[in-house]
Amino acid sequence: MAFPARLAIGVLLMTAMAAVSPQSVDKGPIFTKDGSLVLPSGFRSWVFIGGPITPNGLNDGAAPFPEFHSVYIERENLRYYQKNGKFPEGTVLVKELSLAQAGEHSDGSLDSASGRGYFPSTLSGLDVMVKDSKRYSKTNDWGFFTFGHHAEPYESTAKESSQCAYCHVANVAKTDMVWVQYYPLLKSKID
Amino acid sequence: MRKILLVVILGLGVAAASSLSRYSNPVAADSSQTTAVFDSDGKMRLPVGYRRWVFIGAPLTPNALNNGKANFPEYHHVYVEQKNLDAYLKTGVFPEGTVIVKELTRVLNPTFPDGSRSEPSGRGYFNGEYNGMDVTVKDSKRFAATNGWGFFNFGHHPLPYAESAKEASVGECAGCHIAYVAKTDMTWVQFYPILRDGDKTK
């Protein structure tokens, strides 16, 4: 190929990337060549849909997901779900964990000015699920990834985890593999 | 070949430019300093679109751990706009016009006396229905008497919330914020990981 043509293709690619980047920077999953998922970015600007909390103090000191679970989804995928009752291909759900502030009660709760309860302290981990019916056909179209249950920084990539899918298949296969009953925005059509 | 490529490049360039302008328009339109809207009598209108703002944390004060009647029942989902969060992370104070929304939800059907329930992910608390909204607005002139922040309660009950709210009395809201968190811009920043530690993913 002549040099000008290669240069032109280079410019073309850069232009194409520039055209997509303003909206695509936070969109969809990114995989490495070996099928690992790249740590999502920008997810804290996505829509928060709910925050279960499983305190260590109520789970023999070692909750499987310690302790707050803040769950985020991109807005267009939320809208699609609210309209169609299922998530579109390429949907990424991010569950970021944070520990609760250490409280004086045996259940781990804390007395605060606003009442007794649980209050987030440090971020403590990230789990992600990705809908891709071809890649993850064996696990009801969803792949599961953990980027570590520890303080930041999280892992930069994660391999698909076989530990997660079983519980989702057993409990929530009928609701697109998601515990939709925990998330007010998934149960309603409000904005 | 080169001519075709040139045409394609120009075409993509135009597409890129129009794409950029399309996505920058909402920001340009949103150039006002605050999203708080006040009626002529000083009542604040119910904020809209706040569930698309940045979620910064969710304290939980279950009724069952508060003699059956928590002051803020029960989850407190707190949202702030990206531009105001960014300014806070840069300067340590919220800019004029900042609106912070706290939306409440109940906990999902309790089965234990402490209000918790057991689910496959463990014993704990899970979001139930939406249950109310409180808002703080930073405006150092309008709310000079309460450290630059005004406090509004749009009801502690299921949707729909009140369409507007008058400023809450010092005894209802501001007094407690002044007593406890006057030094951290009237906000319990210690309960919000991003406010306290920054957003390291960006």
Most extensive interface, chain pair and sizes = A-B, 67 and 67 residues
Number of domains of chain B: 2
Describe the global form of chain B: globular
Number of H/I helices of chain B: 4
Q: N- to C-terminal separation of chain B?
A: 41 Å
pLDDT below 50 for ≥5 consecutive residues: which ranges of chain A? Answer: 14-25
Strand order across the biggest sheet of chain B? Answer: 2-3-4-7-8
Radius of gyration over C-alpha positions of chain A, nearest whole angstrom = 20 Å
CATH homologous superfamily designation of the largest domain in chain B = Cytochrome P460
Rg over CA atoms of chain B:
21 Å
Task: Give an overview in words.
The complex is a heterodimer of chains A (191) and B (202). Chain A is an alpha+beta fold. Chain A has a single domain (51-187), classed as Cytochrome P460 (Chalcone isomerase, 3-Layer(bba) Sandwich). Chain A is 25% helix and 24% strand. Chain A has helices at residues 3-24, 75-84, 162-172, 184-187; strands at residues 37-38, 47-50, 68-73, 92-100, 110-112, 115-117, 120-131, 142-146, 157-158. In chain A, a hairpin with a 2-residue loop joins strand 5 (110-112) and strand 6 (115-117). The termini of chain A are far apart. By secondary structure, chain B is of the alpha+beta class. Chain B folds into two domains: 1-31; 33-197, 3-Layer(bba) Sandwich (Chalcone isomerase), CATH 3.50.70.20. Chain B has four helices and nine strands. Chain B has helices at 2-29, 82-91, 170-181, 193-197; strands spanning 44-45, 54-57, 75-80, 99-107, 117-119, 122-124, 127-138, 149-153, 164-165. In chain B, the strands form three sheets. Chain B has a five-stranded antiparallel β-sheet. In chain B, strand 5 and strand 6 (122-124) form a beta hairpin. Chain B is globular and about 50 Å long. Chain B starts with a helix and ends in a 5-residue tail after the last helix. Chains A and B meet through helix 1, strand 2, strand 3, strand 6 and strand 7 of A and helix 1, strand 2, strand 3, strand 6 and strand 7 of B.
